[in-house]
UniProtKB/TrEMBL annotation:
Pfam families: N6_N4_Mtase
Residues covered by the DNA methylase N-4/N-6 domain: 28-360
Keywords: DNA-binding, Methyltransferase, Restriction system, S-adenosyl-L-methionine, Transferase
Keyword Lipid metabolism recorded: no
Source organism per UniProt: marine sediment metagenome
Top-level class of the enzyme under EC nomenclature: transferase
GO biological process: DNA restriction-modification system; methylation
Name of protein: site-specific DNA-methyltransferase (cytosine-N(4)-specific)
GO molecular function: DNA binding; N-methyltransferase activity; site-specific DNA-methyltransferase (cytosine-N4-specific) activity
Protein family: Belongs to the N(4)/N(6)-methyltransferase family. N(4) subfamily.
Membrane spanning stretches: none
Reactions listed under catalytic activity: a 2'-deoxycytidine in DNA + S-adenosyl-L-methionine = an N(4)-methyl-2'-deoxycytidine in DNA + S-adenosyl-L-homocysteine + H(+)
Ranges where the record places region Disordered: 62-85, 286-313
Amino acid sequence: MKPYYQDNDTTLYCGDARHMDDLEDGSVQCVVTSPPYWGLRKYAGVPDLIWGGDAECGHEWQSSSRTLHTGTTQSEKQDSNAGAMTKDSTTDAFCQCGAWRGSYGLEPTPELYVEHTVEVLREVRRVLRDDGVVFWNLGDSYGAGGGTQVVQTKNASHGLAGYRQKTPTVKPKDLVLIPFRVALAAQGFATVSGKEILRCADHLRDARLAGDWDAVQMVEGLLRVWSRWASLDDTWVRSIIIWDKANPMPESVRDRPTTSHEYIIMLTKSARYYWDAEAVREPHTGPVFSGKAGRSAEGYTGRTDGLSRPPLTMKHRDYNPAGRNVRSVWSFPSQPYPDAHFATFPEALPERCILAATPEVGCCEKCGAPWERLTESTTRFEG
């Protein structure tokens, strides 16, 4: 991956996020990104990539056509941008070694999408500093009616024959919960359906009765495949932020609420990391406590917040005049962009992420650690 643009202050790289070889280990302080969402569209001009399988294999591809999840995404951010091409169907290509050729986001199953997401996150984690933070924006999707016929394989390293299901792993109109599957994978959990576990147990039973050790080997391969879906070591999910949109796209649905939010998964490499709470404080809303018995900063007495709480006492902490601690619901309206771009952020969203996870004055030139903000107070604040 080589620099695409460079000046005295900025270097832009363009390349495969799975292979950021030009970036050193632990060299990145903050990552803010929004990858392609699952099952939405094939973008014009984006070549297919090879994912998984045996790197030494020459790859003989077997293809199958399927229907995209057109109209079933929860995100207008990737549903209505210039520069993208919607198709009613696409073609998957599988190899006997277990490799898949296609565009990230167009995997035939959510499980395969999560596996590829973990592959990208593994490289992101490599370049991230130990005190760095990742903000991973994802929208959710709904199951569609079109299934996919997939290749059969007997490669033990790939797993049980035909483990890539012939039928969709979610029901039509069923919410896929992609952001939560990714979050669980980051924590080391694989989301496997009960039906798949039962199918695995049935194969083990048949292999035991028949004394078929090859079948046992296939089941072992399948279990190892499932573990690969969640092989992101030592990653913390610190928050799942709700991106609340003030101007969501209308949806032609009459049997559920209109979707007006997306998710931002906040990931770190350790329990301690750089975070500048002062840089992203929010204005107080409503009465705030002054710490004086029975009185708020607005001058009200007694129970001022509508909750069943006793009158304030001196034990209540003073409020922070700089604002309250940032909440986990961020309200940013979608922002139009006239040029060709696959998916654009409202500028205020990545700005907040950068302010929170990077220092205003930069990092130490010697060790690379971020400069921490020094604060002085005579009272104990709580947001």
